[in-house]
Amino acid sequence: MPDRDPESAAPGPDGVERRMVRDAGLLSLLTMISRVLGLVREMTKASFLGTGLLSDAFTVSFVIPNFMRRLFAENSMAVAFIPVFKGYLHEKDEAATRKFLSSSLTVLTILVVAVVALGMALVPWIVRAFGSDPAETAILTRIMFPFLALVSFAALFQEC
Questions:
Q1: Angle at 102 between CA 100 and CA 108, to 5 degrees
Q2: Which residue range is the domain that position 41 belongs to?
Q3: Which of 6, 41, 53, 61 could bridge to 141 as Cys pair (CB 3.0-4.6 Å)?
Q4: Spatial separation of the C-alpha atoms in residues 36 and 69, rounded to whole Å
Q5: By three-state DSSP, how is residue 9 classified?
Q6: pLDDT, tens digit, for every residue of 13-28?
Q7: Could you report the per-residue pLDDT of 74-100, keeping only the tens digit for each?
Q8: Are residues 111 and 126 in the same domain?
Q9: What total number of domains does the chain contain?
Q10: 148 and 115 within one domain
């Protein structure tokens, strides 16, 4: 009876596939936790602020940086960074990959800091565009704007 060739055997789950499934499960779990915490946030907001002027100010101050996060952190990473980074990884040139990552971090830092600073400076005009009360909303939006920088850097590091 001839020995079976290990390469001709039916492919079974290997370490890479198991790790991918585990990571996907972890991502799903973390997403679910995030959604539950978002619900808790909304319930807490409703409990403390009700449905008046302060509630609207909080909502608008959260929406503006969150919108910017979608533009900078999520879309830019998916559309621009990931395909280029994948190309560098396939080339297997560690020095070029490090240079690309360093350059990406530098450009992201400059752009995000500029957008956050500009956004914080233009908050009164941005808030008026949403039709909200400028005083409370402007204060809360200025507090929330650095969130954009933190999430943008987290998105970059997550992809690396």
A1: 100
A2: 14-49
A3: 61
A4: 20
A5: coil
A6: 577 788 888 888 898 9
A7: 666 667 777 787 788 788 788 888 888
A8: yes
A9: 2
A10: yes
